Amino acid sequence: MCGESRTHGVKWGKTTRNIKLTVFVTYHYFLGLRTLTVIQDAVRMAEKKAGKPIDLHDINYEDAKVYEMIGQAKTEGVFQLESAGMKSFMRELRPENLEDIIAGISLYRPGPMDFIPKYIKGKKNKDSIQYSCPELMEILEPTYGCIVYQEQVMQIVMKLAGYTLGRSDLVRRAMSKKKGDVMAKERANFVYGNEAEGVEGCIKRGIPEDVANHVFDEMIDFAKYAFNKSHAAAYAVVAYQTAWLRCYYPVEFMAALLTSVITNTKKITEYINTCRNMGITILPPDINEGEGGFSVSDGKIRYGLAAIKSLGKNVIDAMVAEREKGGRYKSLKDFMERLTGREINKRTLENLIKSGALDSLGATRKQLMMVYGQVLDEVNRERKENVSGQMSLFDFFSEEEKKEYEIKYPDVGEYDSAQKLAFEKEVLGIYVSGHPLENYRASMEKQVTAKSTDFEPDEDSGHAVVHDGYHYVVGGLISDVTVKTTKTNQNMAFLTLEDMYGTLEIILFPRDYVNYRSLLETDKAVYVKGRASVSEESGKLIAEKLVLMDKVEKEIWIQVENLEGFREKQESLYDIIRQFPGEEKIVIYLKQERALKRLPSYQNIFGSLTALNKLKTLFGEKNIGVKEKSIEK
After folding, report:
1. Cα–Cα nearest to 23, from 220, 227, 233, 218
2. 557: enclosing H helix or E strand
3. Crossing angle (nearest 10°) for helices 209-223 and 180-192
4. Which end of the chain has fewer CB atoms < 10 Å from its terminal CB, N or C?
5. Cα dihedral 92→98→100→106 (10° resolution)
6. Residue 162: its pLDDT value, please?
7. Which run of H or of E encompasses 385?
8. Is the model's pLDDT at 18 over the cut of 50?
9. What residues are paired with 503 via a beta bridge?
10. pTM assigned to the model
11. What are phi and psi of 208, to 5 degrees?
């Protein structure tokens, strides 16, 4: 499909309005190659899973399951339907057929957007639809009384005023190009007719003058922004095809989608979070399984080798070709020996190790980092000896004897989770095997009121999710701090805050900088409350309050059946408190008496996972809860 310029025929059956549509899509005419490549790659992987060819022109275009997914706004990666504004529109629209998608794509643009409430109202309540004259019903009924397409403008002037097809197209073009003098002339022709030019006019056809003028006004309002329907229908077909793949082959579709943005860290982060929300596991890159792009491995997505820094296409092609020819790589030395010195150097090896791509070689990343230089030197030395025809003592050993002299991995264990994640971020641009904020996920779900991506203007509407001047709480890691001096010789700070979705600029003016400068360290997990500052180009947060995530005030609530039951376990509770002293307050709720008892501050606890598990063992899991004080208050 990709790379071809031919025209494809796309057919589907009757819609709920019994409309038989046939759209011929010349793909290269209306969209770039990225979506086509996503479709092509997804189909290729889906065919492997299905074990049969998949023809997207022959799928069911009335599949309720696909429309339900679109109506739930699960449209990340779906052509034309993935922006925040469009997702919100799809939730309201709840499309039921391709006609709704065609109309949705046509309406969701500056100008026609004003008609969206009317369109949705008409779709939900057909009795609310009013037509200026009965003749409009046949033309506007499929779009619930709204003028949505340029073709409808042509139909209206033909049916109401007797225009010919050719002249109706002249009217359409004049309206779309805002030719005032032409439109003024055509208004007179439309309303009163023009016998010399063969136009009857509305009045002669029994339509009152005021109604005719009103209809013409509505056409002018819409036609200057209108899509032609064939164009929108072509978009809708591709939108449906990507939605169908996402619905029935989600892993394959998301792998293809990730490959299409492999050089765009921001989009990779966004789509990987989508995968995790869909329950799709993301695996690190692997020289023994991976490909240049993202691939599917046992129902999971394998990270693409091409995303690793300093790993060029030629190197990847050589690695994959050698693996297909000679089988899996068995060890670090085997990997180096089977590839040439031009393809493998110390920087390449280091980035492969840090990314996790060599995890399948039977050693930890820390062990591999300790020995890769030594192994590479040995392989290069042996290559030189082979080229010069020299023989070493090692050549006289049997295979069993050679194993005795193979480099042994030092007993150094593995890097801790934080270091592994830092390495992944360094060479891949994102965290793969986890996220430093994972331990705070439950807390963030309660505290955070906006994500970093909510501050970015929507690519279609130009509006961000957050509103300028409103207050929000964001949470993430401080990844960069820049301190600057104002004209009044005071310090202020610009922070880069990184959450699980992207980054956000935080501004601390002098007064707030003085209050919170002790917290401004990179890699600190913080909540920030502040005021949004949103423009057409970007969004920022003006900070008013910073709190370390580890320092958020918490209370441990313990529910007990009655006072007697509490007294029976009181000493055991105090033993746990003595084992885990901390800052979290403990609140006892006596169920039978409906009474609360807050323990004194010297009996505060450190609410670690271990401590909470001990409390759950003592009182029962359902009787232990953690309440956080809201940052907003």
Report:
1. 233
2. strand 554-560
3. 150
4. C
5. 110
6. 93
7. helix 365-388
8. no
9. 498
10. 0.80
11. -60, 155
